[in-house]
Structure formats: C-alpha cells, structure tokens
Amino acid sequence: MKAKIAVLPGDGIGPEVTVQARRVLEMVGENFDHEFSFEEAHVGGIAIDECGDPLPEQTLNLCRESDAVLFGAIGGPKWDDPNAPVRPEQGLLRLRRGLGVFANIRPVKPHPDLIDQAPLKPELLRDVDLIVIRELTGGIYFGHKSRENDVAVDTCTYSVGEVERIVRIAASLAREREGRLTSVDKANVLETSRLWRATAERVVHDEFPDVKLEHVLVDAAAMHLLQKPDYFDVIVTENMFGDILTDEASVLAGSMGLLPSASLSDDGPGLYEPIHGSAPDIAGLGIANPYAAISSAAMLLRHSLKLDEEADAVERAVARAVHEGALTVDLVRDERKSMTTAEVGDRVCELLSTCTACLSMSSRGFGYRF
Ligand SMILES: NC(=O)c1ccc[n+]([C@@H]2O[C@H](COP(=O)([O-])OP(=O)(O)OC[C@H]3O[C@@H](n4cnc5c(N)ncnc54)[C@H](O)[C@@H]3O)[C@@H](O)[C@H]2O)c1
Ligand SMILES: CC(C)[C@H](C(=O)O)[C@@H](O)C(=O)O
Ligand SMILES: [Mg+2]
C-alpha cells in the first residue's frame, strides 16, 4: 500500500527517538512491500525559534493531508519562561485539537523481563495489562483561561457529546477485552465529573449492556494503580486525569521511555507519540529510550494504516529485543550493559529483517508480546 506519513520530531529527545521509529517504519515498508513516504516539519520550541509559532500553518496542513502523524516530543528549559507569549506545548495542544484527535489510547503492559527491575513487587506486575483511554481535546486544557493581576483562571468544560464519544470508544474496546470499564472522575467535587459519570452510566447501560462499568474517584484510582494494577482492564477518563495517571502507570512498565500512544479522531489522520516529554536532562546524550516511539509507530501501522500483521511484527521485534537485553540506561542496573538509542533502533530493525518468529506468529494488538 501507499501511505504518506508526517514526521514531527520536535525538541530535546524528540528527534533522537523519532528517527528510530521512522527507520523501523522504513524497514517495514521494505520488508512488506509498502510505499511509505515521509515528510518532516517543525513543531514546538524549534518552530518558535524558526518562525515564532509552535504550530506553523504548513505543519498543520502537512498533517491534515497525511495518512498519519508521527510525533516526537516538545518543550524544554529554553522556552519555559512563564511570561513567554508562546510556549511549545501550545503547538501540541493546537495540533491535537486541529486534527480532532479526541481519543488517546495509552496501553500499559509490562514486559516480563523488566518486571524484576521495577520499583513495585513483581507479583503485582505480572498480570498487568491495561489501557487508558484519555479524552484529549476537552477539559481544563482547552477551557477559557485568564490572568489579571493576582488572579489566574483555568476553566474545565465538558459537554455530553464529548463524554459520549469517548465512552463509546472505551466501552467498545472493553467489549473486545475482559469487558470491564473503569471510569475515573472527581464526581464528589467537580460538576464536569458529575456530568461525565451520568453520561458514562447512560451510554454503557443503553449501548453496552455486556460491559461492566464502575466509577472510581481519581485520587483513589491513583492509589489503586500502584496497589492492585492488575485489577484494571480499560480505564476511561478526562484529559488532565489521564495525563497524570499515565505518567504514574509508566512506573508499572519500568520507564517513561516505554509507553506509546495513539490519538484518534472519527476520521482523518491519527497522531502517534510516546507519552513522555522532551527529557531535557538527557537530551543530546544519545541515551534516550526509543521503545515508546517505536511502539507508537506500531500503533500507527495498526490504527491508521490497518496493517495489523506489520504492527504485530514491530511489537514482536520490540519484545524480542527487550528479551535479549537491548536496553537503554533507564532500564539497566549496570550502566556498562546499556545500549545507545541508535543501537536499540539498529537491533529492532535487524530483528524485523531476520527474525522469522517476529514476522510469522499471529496475535492481537496492544503492547508487548513474544
Ligand atoms: N508529548 C510531549 O511532547 C510532552 C510530554 C510530556 C512533557 N513534555 C514537555 O517535556 C519537557 C520536560 O518535561 P518533564 O521533564 O516533566 O517530562 P519528561 O517526560 O520529558 O521526563 C521525565 C523523566 O523521564 C525521563 N524520560 C522521559 N522520556 C525518556 C526516554 N525516552 N528515555 C529515558 N528516559 C526518559 C526523563 O529523563 C526525565 O527524568 C517539558 O517542557 C514538558 O512540557 C512534552
Ligand atoms: C506536553 C503536554 C501538553 C502533554 C499533555 O499534558 O497532554 C504531555 O504531558 C502528554 O502527556 O502528552
Ligand atoms: Mg503527560
């Protein structure tokens, strides 16, 4: 098949990990006989430096006319002045909104070989296999904001329609899995959460009677995620809660550098990005973990290009590489045994061409498998 992929590397480690994800997609194109074309554009801090706008019009246009968008990360200390008129993060938020990608899928499934190194007890992690569906284009991120003298305001808004569509996505996914959906809110305090809860209740009751829905308050959910992470199947939540809970969930997997994401709209290109940021503390050192970016590329193959077999092959190559110990420094105890970002990318590409087991077994998507 032919596909056009927009690549937005961004800032900090964004370009370092994105180049590895792009190489993997190129390798998939070669091995499976697809014609993928790639076009790069600036977003975030680098775009501010270039033209004063974190999401230049040509970048958004490129994304809109592509089949999918591979995104690195944005931001960094250079653009962090709280009084700056524009910020890199605004570029990412405008991109999400501009593409209408309201459904952010963040799977969390620890690789068995990394469980012993995680800060949580191995027995808590062994059966963890959860997916967070984060609402991505509403809530406090996009509500009215103001700042006057000593007072700042951020407004959190949700409409019934916005809640219905994200709950439908989450419930459909739960139906294909264990049929359990946990809706996370703060309904004891927030009006938006009460609307969220009532809407989720109605949608699931009317349209997904086979799905078991429960509601958990976000503060308790944060605790349960560490205390009994294997309890969860599909979690659906609003924008900011989903942001915070998924950084927490990355601890279950072992590193921020492992969690991928897909952001989808009703139609139009999907946006694929690791959940981590630009990691200024390690940028430029060549040691960033590229697995989150590479796994995001696998999600791109599966969700935007409908290439399940190819997505499976990439996920198996990742799982195999991890199993062999192809790990960056965030995942090894002994630094001398770590690989660079590029070496990990090399190994995944090699496995994609040589590992017949990676290419042949069939399985269903989301997260690690081998
Ligand atoms: N999607 C995005 O572009 C995105 C996401 C989160 C944060 N940010 C931005 O990134 C900047 C830095 O934010 P932060 O430090 O709070 O979060 P961060 O995710 O960049 O880093 C948090 C910690 O995780 C580590 N880490 C992250 N990704 C890693 C990887 N691939 N390999 C190994 N270690 C990794 C970092 O070294 C750091 O110690 C900020 O400007 C923030 O706004 C951007
Ligand atoms: C950089 C920031 C705007 C972004 C968010 O909060 O959505 C990030 O933390 C993420 O998780 O993708
Ligand atoms: Mg985040």
From TrEMBL:
Binding sites annotated in the UniProt record for NAD(+): 76-89, 277-289
Domain of life: Bacteria
Positions of Mg(2+) binding: D219, D243, D247
E.C. number: 1.1.1.85
Family: Belongs to the isocitrate and isopropylmalate dehydrogenases family. LeuB type 1 subfamily.
HAMAP family (alphabetical): LeuB_type1
The protein's name: 3-isopropylmalate dehydrogenase
Species classification: Bacteria, Pseudomonadati, Acidobacteriota, Holophagae, Acanthopleuribacterales
